[in-house]
Amino acid sequence: MKNVYLLLFVVLFVSGCYSYREYPVEYDYSYYGKFKKYKSFAFLENNTAITDSTVSYVVIEDIIKSRLQTQGYNYKLEKPNLLVSYKIYYDSLSFRGYDQPDIETWAKSAKEDIEYNPRKYDLRKGTLLIQLYDRKQE
User: Fold this and answer.
1) Is beta strand 127-134 parallel, antiparallel or unpaired with respect to 93-98?
2) Can you tell me the distance from the alpha carbon of 99 to that of 93, in angstroms, rounded to the nearest whole number?
3) What's the rounded Cα separation, in Å, for the pair 86 and 75?
4) H or E segment and range at residue 58
5) CB within 8 A of 104, min separation 6: which ones?
6) With the CA atoms of 35, 100, 71 and 16 taken in that order, what torsion angle do they form, in degrees rounded to the nearest 10?
7) Which end of the chain has fewer CB atoms at under 10 Å, N or C?
8) Domain DUF4136: where (predicted)?
9) How many CA atoms lie within 13 A of 107 on its CB side?
C-alpha cells in the first residue's frame, strides 16, 4: 500500500513540475495563541455536504499531517491539543483576515502587543481553508 502512495506522489510531483504554479499560502492567527504549548493534533471528522470524487481527502490530510509534523506537532487520536478542520471552496469568495507576519517568524518572538491590521482577501476557486482549534476551548 505504501508503494501505491509513493508511486502516486512521484507521478503527481513530476506532473506538477510540468505545470508549475505557485499557490499562495495565507495565515490568520491570534497573537494571543500559545502555539508552543500545543504538542499534538487530530482531524475533526470531515462533514462536507458535497462529496467530490475528484478530490482525495486522504492526500489532503496526509499533506496537512506532514506539514504539522515538520512543525513539531504529533498526530494523536486520543485527546489531542489541536483539532484540525478543512474545507474546499469551489467558488471564489471574499475572506476578511489580517495582514500578519508568517506564523513561523512570529512564533519565534510571540509578541502579543502587535496591532491587527484588517485585510480583505479575494480567494479564487479551489481555496482550501484549514482551521486549527484548541480542543479545550469552547
Assistant:
1) unpaired
2) 18
3) 16
4) helix 57-70
5) 71
6) 150
7) C
8) 25-137
9) 14
Distance CA 41, CA 24 (A): 24
How many of the other CB atoms lie within 10 Å of CB of 41? 22
Sign of the CA dihedral 87, 46, 44, 40?
negative
| Type of residue numbered 125 | K
Identify any residues that bridge with 52 across adjacent strands, giving them in sequence order. none
Whether the predicted model's global pTM rises above the 0.85 cut: no
| Adjacent-strand bridge partners of 75 | 41
pLDDT tens digits, residue range 49-74?
A: 556 666 778 888 998 999 889 888 99
Cα–Cα dist 107/102, whole Å: 9
How far CA 44 is from CA of 69, 120, 131, in Å, comes to 17, 27, 10
What is the distance in angstroms between the CA of the first residue and the CA of the last residue of the chain? 39
Q: Which of 84, 61, 72 is nearest to 135 (CA)?
A: 84
